[in-house]
Amino acid sequence: MNIPDDRSYTASHEWMQRSADGVTVGISDYAQGELTDIVFVELPEVGKHLNAGDEICALESVKAVAYVYAPVSGVVAAVNERLGKEPELVNQQPYGDGWIVRFTPDQPEKTVNLLDAAAYRKKVEAAGSSH
Amino acid sequence: MPPRESPLAAEHAEAGARMTEFAGWRLPVGYTSVAEEAQATRRAAGLFDISHMGNLHVLGSGAAAAVRGVLTRDVPAAPICRSGYALMCNERGGIMDDLFFLVMSDSAVGLVVNAVHHDRDVDWLEQRLAIGENLTLEDLRGRSFGVALQGPRSEEILKSTNVQGRLPDLFGTFACLRIAQADVLVSRTGYTGEDGFEIFGAAEEAPVVWQTVLSFGRERGLAPAGLAARDVLRQEMGYPLAGQDITEETTPLEAGLRWAIDWNGDFVGKSALEGLEPTRRRIGFVMAERGIARQGAAIYSGDSQIGTVTSGTYSHNLSAAIGQGYVSLASGLGAGDEVEIEVRGKRMRAALAKLPLIPKKTRPSWAQVKRRAS
Description:
Chain A has helices at residues 29-35, 89-92, 117-126, and strands spanning 8-9, 14-19, 22-27, 38-42, 49-50, 55-61, 65-69, 74-79, 101-105. With 131 residues, chain A is an alpha+beta fold. In chain A, the strands form two sheets. Chain A has a six-stranded antiparallel β-sheet. A three-stranded antiparallel β-sheet of chain A has the order 4-6-7, with no helix packed on it. Chain B has helices at residues 9-14, 34-43, 63-68, 118-128, 154-160, 206-217, 227-236, 270-274, 366-373, and strands at residues 4-5, 18-22, 25-30, 45-49, 54-59, 83-89, 95-105, 108-113, 136-139, 144-150, 174-179, 182-187, 196-202, 222-224, 280-287, 298-301, 304-315, 320-328, 338-343, 346-353. In chain B, strand 12 (182-187) and strand 13 (196-202) form a beta hairpin. In chain B, helix 2 (34-43) packs across helix 7.
């Protein structure tokens, strides 16, 4: 199970990573595996304000539809336009080129309850996946 | 209750399969990506674990004749080693299950049923076949395996394994063969619309058969394929999934399965079906927008709801979201007509489409060959 230590996770399987550019958000390797092939990503509009816990966008996979939720309050500063044509990037590189949105967080910001990699790993393993 | 394990569980783990629970079984949902597995099956071949499918044997004098009384199809007299698709209906003509029968002799018939209806089918058959008098019903659950080898290179792959015996060459026929010293029943049937085989045998021989087919098949483009790819492939063909697209609330007439009824002879549900005029029919659709209409989604024409989706997914083979559902006959709409389907709270454009969405490539059946000859 690929759960890098350099970022935080949510109970709803998003990851977020802070950098000078803001807060980048995607979904975990476990989440993409459970969804199977992602075929449509409906990206939000840049400039939209979201509160922590709000829906960012829908991911349609062969098997199911899933919603991505904002781990932090802020304004959508950038969206990963490549996902329009290459939604499979979310499956192939969930922590890299498959990122979904970047936020400029509010000052002061709010977040949902975040998990570190070890706590998220525990949660996923308890869900009984095979890898 | 913990889920049942396939006799191929170790093979799936070694292949790094992602597992899911389906109808009380722990099964591989996929190995690589759904796109790769579904495309490999259409281009070369896919290998599917179908050990969860119920494997029932009706045994005893008059078994074939008795089974005919609960199926919509003629069960041909032995010995011609025929397998065939049939429906099992209730008294009202509602579909309890769809299945493949395998006539081994006049006193031995195999029924391959859906895992989701396995227990209910056993109860129904025990009641309806007067099990206990002359007939016995043997349930091979946990003792048998099933593997489906599907795709245009299936025959070439099976031959390359040095299989002993003559392969069945028509759709809907079977033979008893040996693969890597394992005795197996090989039926030329499937759920993908491609040429291919379904291989059944004793659970303990599952690993050697799986490994042998896979090792000879790899260089010919064979890929192990999971439930997700299997679902996409059957939807491309418009094949119904029992419990979802066909249920006790739908009849074979509505489901477009009239072809699977032989009206000669008597069977449970026949008299109800003779008196029924369908008011809706099952039809395919292709989405024109970026959304997948799934089970339960409403189908609209203008402001009125004219139908409901029963299955939907995305086909990488067609590069489109596809599905099937029931549309009212009163709407007058059919293949090619534009509709709207509710997806994630929005109405999206779609076109109704004739099923299958991809041309069927199975071998001709016994019945087709016979018709051509006469």
